[in-house]
Design a protein that fits this description.
This protein is an alpha/beta fold. The chain has one domain: 3-Layer(aba) Sandwich (Rossmann fold). It has 12 helices and 8 strands. Helix 10 links the parallel strand 7 and strand 8. The longest helix has 15 residues.
């Protein structure tokens, strides 16, 4: 499996973030945000393709991937929105193009609507944006995180593996599934997995949901038609709320569109971003 290095570091309000910049050094800046319980690794193929034309920034949110994971860490949507705003300032990006998946969609939306982050354009891929959200399993773990933290290592591994593999679509390659599960294992990873679920609160999207009708940046909404976590109907609903947004359903893809249909997603993103003035 190819490496996915994040050699750079930035310390913000929720700990140290690992990040990288790839692609065309003089290209228009484009930032990618991952979702939960994933990391920037899910963007690897799309990022490298987008890098032919863009300067692409990738990062693991605090509490995720190879970024800092620590007891008592604030990894909520509120914290991530602030960290992303800090990171854009650190990078010196005033109006980058932004593509955000799942939980990262809510992070990008909060940074824009609450913290004044400005984007040249925004692409949302199966985002967590509209109530209600959270599967029955997700809510069970959130309400009893302290119990799940005590699971034996083998049971915890099996639980995370089953959960990550339940996104719908054609299914993940076993090596990719291993890579996505690995950050959540061990003395640091296991409590971090339950920490991020325990802090997932719908009120953080409730706070901004009524502002979607005021979004005035070019917006693309992509959705895997076979998403088993967030129904495609939520995507159509969101597209109806964001003025002038472009709706792009992607066939034969589940929630992890980057893994299920990377070529189709890359084509949709390139076509959209190339039209932005």
């Amino acid at each position: 499996m190819s490496a996915w290095p994040l050699p750079e570091a930035f310390t913000g309000g929720s700990g140290t973030v690992r990040w990288n910049r790839l692609g065309a050094p003089d290209g228009r800046p484009l930032v990618l945000l991952h979702g939960t319980p994933f990391s920037s690794y899910v963007w690897r193929a799309v990022a490298r393709s987008l890098g032919r034309d863009h300067q692409v920034f990738v990062w693991d949110m605090p509490g995720y991937g190879v970024s800092e994971k620590s007891a008592g860490q604030d990894v909520s949507l509120a914290a991530q929105g602030r960290v992303f705003t800090e990171l854009l300032e650190h990078w010196g990006l005033e109006e980058p193009l932004v593509a955000a998946h799942d939980f990262g969609g809510a992070v990008a939306l909060r940074a824009h609507l609450l913290h004044g982050a400005r984007y040249g354009a925004l692409a949302l891929v199966d985002p967590v944006a509209l109530a209600p959200w959270g599967s029955p399993f997700f809510r069970l773990v959130r309400d009893h995180a302290e119990v799940f933290e005590q699971l034996p290592e083998a049971l915890h591994r099996a639980l995370v593996r089953e959960y990550v593999g339940s996104t719908g679509g054609p299914g993940l390659h076993p090596a990719v599934l291993d890579r996505l599960v690995e950050p959540w294992l061990g003395e640091t990873g296991q409590p971090a997995f339950y920490r991020q679920i325990a802090q997932a609160d719908q009120r953080y999207t409730d706070e901004i949901q009524d502002r979607y009708t005021g979004i005035d940046v070019p917006t693309l909404i992509c959705w895997g038609e076979d998403d088993a976590w967030i129904p495609v109907a939520k995507g159509r609903e969101l597209a109806g709320l964001v003025p002038g947004s472009r709706w792009e359903p992607i066939a034969h893809a589940g929630h992890l569109v980057q893994e299920d249909a990377p070529a189709e997603l890359t084509a949709a993103l390139l076509d959209f971003f190339r039209r932005v003035p």
